[in-house]
Structures are given as C-alpha cells and as structure tokens.
C-alpha cells in the first residue's frame, strides 16, 4: 500500500474522482501544507493557517501508480491558477503535490516538465511541489461528500464536470 497527498481546489472534487479509480482503496479529505497543528475547517478557510484542502489517497501501486494519479490530478483541476479553482478563492484552494519520498518528488517534477514541454496548458503550471510534513483529516461531514450529496447544486455544477472529464480520459481505470 502507498499514499499520495494532493490538493487541487475543493477536496470534495478530488475525493469524488479518486474514489472511483481502480486500485484506490481509500480517499480522506483533509488539510496539509500549512504551519499550524491540528487545523479545522473554520481556521483553514481564513487562509491564514497556510493549509490547503487536500486528499490523502491510499492506493495499491501494483494496480495504479503515482504517475497515473498525477495524470488524473492534472486532468480534473486547473494547475495554472494560483490560490484558486473556479469560484473557490484563497490559498487553501491552491494546486499542490505533497511528496512523501524522493520517487514521488521525481515523478511530480517529471510530469510537470512533460506537461510544460507538451504545451498542455496555455499558462504556466503553478502547482506547488513540497514535502508532506503532516496530514490532518477533515471533519466527518467532509468525508464521502459527493456520495452523500450528489444531487446538491455544488455537486452537480462543480464536481460532476470533473467526474465527466475523468470518465472521458480514464474510463478504463474507473470502477463500474
């Protein structure tokens, strides 16, 4: 088993997509990348804790590798906007890869370099790549959000298009 920690806007969006990938055993929404211990949603939303909304992905590397997780990541969010994803604005919504070992660091840098070389985006990629120092699980009501609230307007307008992008590009890797 291995873990990956990624932030690309609201954690509900990433959680909904990664939960559907073959080889992903668990996805936990939470906070990382900041300077305060034991942050909670109200403190993170102020933008002053330094934490980003992230997902911690527990996965089986014999089924899905870290590079594929990153390819999904760069498909379902905009890595060219600093401190923002759509209407979600603030440093807690930044694009960030929190690496756990040197292999993850090398893979993250290689994927970003490849996407840049290929001209995948008109604007430069601003995704931060930094070591994971601590992960703090989010509150219970943030876990499995899409599964519990799929008909809510936010889920329909924001999360559903990300699920559709994942389906279009990675449909062969999704659970049915």
Automatic annotation (TrEMBL):
It holds the Pfam family PMSR. Residues 3-156 form the Peptide methionine sulphoxide reductase MsrA domain. Gene3D superfamilies: Peptide methionine sulphoxide reductase MsrA. GO terms for molecular function: L-methionine:thioredoxin-disulfide S-oxidoreductase activity; peptide-methionine (S)-S-oxide reductase activity. Its EC number is 1.8.4.11. The active site is at 10. Keywords: Oxidoreductase. It comes from the Bacteria. It catalyses: L-methionyl-[protein] + [thioredoxin]-disulfide + H2O = L-methionyl-(S)-S-oxide-[protein] + [thioredoxin]-dithiol; [thioredoxin]-disulfide + L-methionine + H2O = L-methionine (S)-S-oxide + [thioredoxin]-dithiol. PANTHER family: PEPTIDE METHIONINE SULFOXIDE REDUCTASE (PTHR43774), PEPTIDE METHIONINE SULFOXIDE REDUCTASE MSRA 2 (PTHR43774:SF1). Belongs to the MsrA Met sulfoxide reductase family. Has an important function as a repair enzyme for proteins that have been inactivated by oxidation. Catalyzes the reversible oxidation-reduction of methionine sulfoxide in proteins to methionine. This is Peptide methionine sulfoxide reductase MsrA. The gene is msrA.
């Amino acid at each position: 088993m291995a873990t990956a920690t990624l932030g690309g806007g609201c954690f509900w969006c990433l959680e909904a997509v990664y939960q559907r990938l073959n080889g992903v055993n668990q996805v936990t929404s939470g906070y990382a990348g900041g300077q305060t211990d034991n942050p909670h949603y109200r403190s993170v939303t102020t933008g002053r804790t330094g934490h980003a909304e992230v997902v911690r992905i527990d996965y089986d590397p014999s089924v899905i590798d870290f590079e594929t997780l990153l390819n999904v990541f760069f498909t379902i969010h905009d890595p060219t906007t600093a401190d923002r994803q759509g209407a979600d604005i603030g440093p807690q919504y930044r694009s960030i890869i929190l690496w756990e070992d040197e292999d993850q660091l090398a893979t993250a840098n290689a994927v970003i370099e490849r996407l840049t070389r290929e001209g995948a985006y008109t604007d430069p990629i601003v995704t931060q790549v930094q070591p994971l120092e601590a992960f703090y699980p989010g509150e219970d009501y943030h876990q499995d959000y899409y599964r519990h609230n799929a008909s809510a307007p936010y889920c329909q307008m924001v999360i559903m298009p990300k699920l559709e992008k994942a389906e279009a590009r990675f449909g062969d890797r999704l659970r049915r």
